[in-house]
Amino acid sequence: MGVFITGVNGLVHAGMHHEHMMMDETGMIMNANADRLPKDCEKISETVDITIRAGRKHALKFNGKMFAFDNQEWQVKPCAKLNIRFINDDQIRHQLMIHGLPGYLYPDGMFHLELNGQGELNAPLILPKLKKTYLVHCELPQHMEKGMKAQLKVDGGDGDLPSIPGLTAAVNADSYPVDWTQATLAILLLCVLIGAGVPLVLARLRS
Ligand SMILES: [Cu+2]
């Protein structure tokens, strides 16, 4: 496996095959893509500068959430190039990960920015033409559940993701456990007996 490391503006710039990674004491950039076009794109349709902030203060407007991005949804055109400026307003580590991207451009289908604490990173990516909704989140333990979940829609997207703070409902918001009284057990038993009995009756009728 060939690894090359060169200093770029004080950042360590390392590449392994298609993998692309930059890392320094402030954070990490993986799979940035400034110029490789997705297969379904003839050219870049638009270049969009997007600033995404992360931190506790962005979760204050959401009941019961602890972390969030400052926006929960972004809409771009097919074949758009995004120049992402990721700012962490917290003193703890946060990530900005975009999932479901084509694997031939983004290993593991993933674009990944990470800040160890307060600071910022800038990185580009180019989105395919496909009408699709991409998951954007922070993958640190419990951060997504605590609010760091958002969606990026290309060409209007192909639906909404669940549990996005302020936007969409949770899939398993509440569970209502069945009250296993003797009555429900009796009904269940009856159902099992009927289910087992019906084929027997049918078999007799046929013979
Ligand atoms: Cu986080």
From TrEMBL:
Membrane as a keyword of this entry, yes or no, is yes
Record key words, sorted? Membrane, Transmembrane, Transmembrane helix
The organism sits in which domain of life?
Bacteria
Transmembrane portions of the chain: 183-203
**Identification of the protein by name:** Multicopper oxidase
User: What species does this protein belong to?
Assistant: Methylocucumis oryzae
